[in-house]
């Protein structure tokens, strides 16, 4: 599991949001770019400090976060 070595979060860095280790690039920025259709290659060009394993770690982090979330149906 690469996530534990590539994702970090501290209260004083980016308001405590998870970031790619050693950068101020938040996991949410990576996910947002991918959701908008940005290719991994283009993302790596835009953020030269990123590596492919960082993108994979961001996706793994999101998946693991969702796996540990209980989703309930809203009763209106």
Descriptive overview:
- This protein has 76 residues and is mainly α.
- It has a single domain, classed as Orthogonal Bundle (Arc Repressor Mutant, subunit A), CATH 1.10.10.
- 47% of the residues lie in helices and 5% in strands.
- It has 4 helices and 2 strands.
- The chain has a two-stranded antiparallel sheet with strand order 1-2.
- α2 crosses α4.
- It is globular, with a radius of gyration of 14 Å.
- The mean pLDDT is 88.
Using brief descriptors, characterize the structure shown.
about 80 residues; Arc Repressor Mutant, subunit A; about 45% helix; mainly alpha; two-stranded antiparallel ribbon; globular
Question: In short, what is this structure?
Answer:
The protein is mainly alpha-helical and 76 residues long.
């Amino acid at each position: 599991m690469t996530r534990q070595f590539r994702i970090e979060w501290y209260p004083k860095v980016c308001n405590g949001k998870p970031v790619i280790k050693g950068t101020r690039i938040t996991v949410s920025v990576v996910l947002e770019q991918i959701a908008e259709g940005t290719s991994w290659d283009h993302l790596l060009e835009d953020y030269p400090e990123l590596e492919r394993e960082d993108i994979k770690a961001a996706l793994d982090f999101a998946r693991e976060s969702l796996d540990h979330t209980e989703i309930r149906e809203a009763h209106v």
